[in-house]
Amino acid sequence: MNACFLPCTSHYETLNLVLSCHFVILLLRSDSSKQGQAAAAAGPKAKPEPTKSQPATIAKVQEKTPSKPASSPPQYRNAEVENEINKNKNAERLELSSMKLNDQDMEIVAYYAIRNNTIHTNLVLGTWDADNPIGDEGAQYLAEALKSNKTLTSLWLRKSHIGDKGAQYLADALKNNTTLTKLDLWGNKIGDKGAQYLADVLKNNKTLTHLQLYSNRIREDGAQYLADALKNNKTLTELELAGNEIGDEGAQYFAVALENHQTLTKLNVFGNQIGDEGAQYLADALKKNTKIGDKGAQYLVDALKNNTTLTGLRLPSTKIGDEGAKYLANALKDNKTLRTLGLMYCDIGDKGAQYLADALQTNKRLRQLDLRSNNISSSLREQLEKKDRRFLLS
Fold first, then answer.
1. What's the domain count of the chain?
2. Is residue 106 in some structural domain?
């Protein structure tokens, strides 16, 4: 389970955060200094009630008639693409991300790799360092093929040129497709309208577990559509929204949706212009849950290494274990601001305690490390308490 990271300003000088087992919020505020000063000067602000969104009205996709029926190959030809698909026709993973494919090429991919292949389960058409200039028209070819495909479980379209219309085509396909579990649209041009199309599908989709929307153009309205969809969706486990612009208002929508949500295990809203107000909404929502795992602790590492405002962090009754303690120990070696760290009831044994003890030899700013009610032997507890008075072990 992934963890939550929230900034703390002078207004919340000793904010202690309780992290949830049901979602990760990686939150690094880009404009912390200005917003923090403004928040401190203004004083506490009453928590407003979020505006209820109206039911999304989604226009039916205006689909163009396919140039050829499914039984006939496309007229457009690209020998290089066709040869690559044929060469890998029996592979579960088909990687075409570095071929500079365009919209017309997607007609070939849709026909040979999706419509007429029952082996491929993972189709990669774009990664973070190898993209294809696929736009809305290309997305339409793929979406049409997805409607009848029964084997593909993962579709990667990273760093393409897909906008709201392309998102609409793909969302429409997901109304019929019952096998796709991961849709990766990282680094596209999807805005609030595209988010609305995808959210509308999430309300009823029973198979999609991972939706990647990192670095698109989604703002607070799009966040509201997606947050509302989570209230009904019981399948999605990971939603990536880092690098958008949902702001404090968008954070509030997710906070309300997540208070009672039991399915989502990862929500990434890093780099979304979320300030103290949005952080507080999310923190309040997370207090209803108290279990995370060692994977969640791993997600804290980079955040704690770079954060310059957080002073208190509590992870009570979590299951991070020795591995999670190791991740946190690595973060503590670089962190300069954390003053208190609470790890009570975390299933930490002697090995994990030793990782943390080693970190404290480097970190002289941490004032208290609470390791009470863990699985640390009495001999090691006694040794650590004598060696460093910052340990709280009994």
1. 1
2. no
Residues in the chain: 394
Helix axes 247-258, 276-286, angle to 10 degrees: 10
Cβ-proximal residues to 56 (8 Å cutoff; 6+ apart), any chain: 196, 199, 200, 225
Examine residue 71 and state whether it is found in any structural domain, yes or no: no
User: Over the stretch 150-171, which tens digit does the pLDDT of each residue have?
Assistant: 999 999 999 999 999 999 999 9
The answer to whether the pTM exceeds 0.90 is: no
Contact of 267 with 5, CB cutoff 8 Å: no
Measured CA angle at 138 (ends 155, 208), to 5 deg: 25
Residue 204 lies in a domain: no
Residue 20's pLDDT is 34
Tell me if 92 is assigned to some domain: no
Q: What region does 80 belong to: left with phi over 0, alpha with psi -120 to 50, or beta?
A: alpha
CATH number of 328's domain: 3.80.10.10
pLDDT tens per residue, range 283-335: 666 655 444 456 556 555 655 665 566 687 777 776 789 998 998 999 898 88
Per-residue b or e along 183-199, where b marks 16 or more CB atoms closer than 10 Å to that residue's CB: bbbbbbbbbbbbbbbbb
